[in-house]
What does this fold into?
Amino acid sequence: MSRFQHHIFICTNRRASDDSRGSCAGRDSEKVLIAFKQGLVKHKLSGKVRSNSSGCLDNCSRGPSVVIYPDGVWYGAVKPEDVEEIIVEHLLNDRPVERLRIAAFSAQS
Ligand code: FES
It folds into this structure.
């Protein structure tokens, strides 16, 4: 049995500004990570849901990239203002946010 009901990985990989692949940190993913951490506290999900920064999730062109396990649901182009909706809809009501969802893995970085 897993310690956490959900585990959220937020890519905070940063590349040089002249790298054509771009990076999630270059698109403010660190603010997305902070929004998740604050949102989990706000909704009293600390200890039930864990959010972590991660390295590159290989969806760079669609970042900031977020993946939630054990569901295996991937989100792309996530902004800090999207995080409340993900927490309420996905984590609390078991309804993934379709408008932000991306295919599981396409390796198009
Ligand atoms: S830099 Fe975030 S998915 Fe690659």
